[in-house]
Structure formats: structure tokens, C-alpha cells
Input
Amino acid sequence: MDRDRATALLCAAVVVSVLVPFVAATVQLPSLLEAIEQRSYSTVYLDRTGEIMAVTTVDDGIRRQRVNLRQLPPEVVRIVLAAEDRRFWRHRGVDPVAVVRAAVQNLRQRRVVSGASTVTMQVVRLFTDATGRQPGKGEQAFLALWLERLLTKETILELYLSNLPFGSGVAGVESGSRRFFGVSAAELTSLEILSLAVIPRSPRRYHPHSGREDNLGAALVLAGRVGATASFADVNAALVAAEERIRRHSSWGSSEAPHFLQHLVATAAMDHGVTSLDLSLQRIANEALRRRIAAAGSHRIGHGAVLAMDGQTGEVLAWVGSPSFHEPRSGQVDAVLIRRQPGSTLKPFLYA
Output
């Protein structure tokens, strides 16, 4: 009798341990889908030649650029999945092989040394953070199973690669690539991809500059896993070169047209893509205005503006609102837009 009772209690416990997270996941699913739908991403502004002008921050103060799987090099996807979820394309949100492996390792060590989170489960965790409620592993597993039924593998992977946390004010492989290597993810070398892929495990510990030794060690282990040829010296040289590249050039584009960018944001003239501005002409206009204002200093002229437009299309090619945007007194006053009394400037038109 006691044995029957114990068996019944065990069965009840198993049912409850499965049923409770299942019900919780079902309740949480709409909030998760809403968080995915409402996630904000950085706006990337380009000049007419494709040169980056700015990458904006999003509401939570970080730069997070959305990626398109078809535009990423296959090597980036292959190495990131090797680091995080080798069987991603084969499982349905939960990887039974990883669960068994983690359970065996944890039992042997008598402590948690390995997890079994798949990329899909990590996507669940990344987006449920935004709802203010972090689900347990069982609930994460059921939510991952739901996501795999509702979204394609490609969409789930894009969400992961766009939101993967790298610390240092960036999320996603594109923003991480620009922050740590000064180039787009499409321009990364295999050695740089190895270094980038290990950062999300512990962004502070595996920071490629301040935590270089740990980053190098983890990158070499990953290289062995993916069958890549890499040495400590090779990866270190790649990180040194990247650090120098970042020191010489901004990772987030030119800061040479701040008033123009402010105008685009303020008027919602566009929220992404290629603008009409020509940064090479913008640089010429910036320098010309600075020289002219310096020469006119004795005439008590300290401010000015330049607006260059295409006479046929009306497109703005250069927009300089002040000689120095960061001048504390009037640098952020945009003289292109500010309304002033015409005064004697009307005379040439009246007398012509």
C-alpha cells in the first residue's frame, strides 16, 4: 500500500512538474511574441555612396543592429552556432542530446557545470527579459517549442544574431563586430569571427581587448571545434590590428554632418538607409566654413552655415549648420534652419 502511495505521489509530482511550466509558457507566449514584435533596433544612416554616417542607440541606450541572415557570411553563422548550439538545424527548440550531456556532467561534478540551452531557448530568455519576468528552464523549454512551431529556423536565428548581448553597450553580431573590430560582420576575417563568437559567454571576461588572454584561449578552443587553423599569435595579431583600427576610425560612422542627422530624426524624414548627403562634399564644406569664419573674425563674424543642393533634384548634398557643432555657446544652433531678419541681404535682389 505504501509503495502504491509512493508511486502515485511520484506520478503526481512528475505531472505537476510538467504541467505547471506548460501552463505558464502558454500564458507567457503572447507577451513573448509582443516583445519580439516591438523590439527596437538601431537606425543606420548612410551617405549617397554607402559610407556610414551614424548608427543610433535604441531606447535602452545600446546599439543593436538588425541582421539579415542572407547578408551574413556563412562563416559567421557556422562559427557562432558551433559555439552556442551545434545541433540548431536538427532540434525543435530543445536538444535532448544536450540535456542528457549536461545532466551527466552536472551529476559527475555535483554542481552545475554545463547547461543545455539552445539558441531558441536563449531567444526566449533575451525577449522575456523585456517583459520583466524571467521564466525557469522548464518554461523556457516549452516556450522554445512554441516558437519553433510559430517561426522559421531562419527567423529565430536572425533574432538571436540581432540581439545576442556583447556588453560594452552593444547587442547583435553586427554591432558587436563594429564595436570590437571596427568593421561590418560581413568584413570579419575567420580569426576575428572566432574571437567575436566567444564574447557573449561572459562579455567582461572575454572582452577582446581588456580580457584578451581569456578571449584568445576560448577562441583557440572554438577553432579546434570547427576545424579552423589558428594560433595564439595569429589571433592576438588580429586583435591588436582591430584595436588600432578602432583607435583611428570611429566604429559608428562619421560625425561630420550632425545638424543634417538631427534634422532627419526631428522631422522623421527617413528612418533608415541611404541619404542624399555626399560626405566627401560635406568635408569640403566643413573646412571651407571654418576657414571663412576664421578669416572673418575681425569683423565680429563667428557663425555661419553651408547648404549645398542638387539644382535639378533638390537633394541635399552638404549641410553644415555651424563651424563647430561642439562649440558650447552656439555650436548646436543650426544656421541652415534658423530664421533671421534679412536686413541688407535683400538689397541685391531689389536693385538687380
